[in-house]
Amino acid sequence: MVVVTKQKGESEDKLIARFKKMVMDSGILQEARDRQRHKTDAEKRKDQKKVRAASIKLEKKRNR
């Protein structure tokens, strides 16, 4: 759960921006999206395979 309290002299816009950042960093929205639809084991493996492939590709790019 994300709790944000207004700091002295802070505008509402800054407060909302700080709240949004904390929510994004905590992963709450991503978890909610993941729970909206049940994924089969095959879909989960496929997603993990994509993540691994992307990280390998990024690592190769960094080592050049």
UniProtKB/TrEMBL annotation:
- One Gene Ontology biological process: translation
One MF term from GO for this chain?
structural constituent of ribosome
**Which InterPro entries does this UniProt record tie to the protein?**
Ribosomal_bS21, Ribosomal_bS21_sf
Keywords from the UniProt entry: Ribonucleoprotein, Ribosomal protein
Q: Which domain of life, per UniProt?
A: Bacteria
Cellular component terms (Gene Ontology): ribonucleoprotein complex; ribosome
Region named Disordered? 28-64
Q: Where is the composition biased (Basic and acidic residues)?
A: 31-46
Family of this protein: Belongs to the bacterial ribosomal protein bS21 family.
Q: What is this protein called?
A: Small ribosomal subunit protein bS21
Q: What is the lineage of its organism?
A: Bacteria, Candidatus Woeseibacteriota
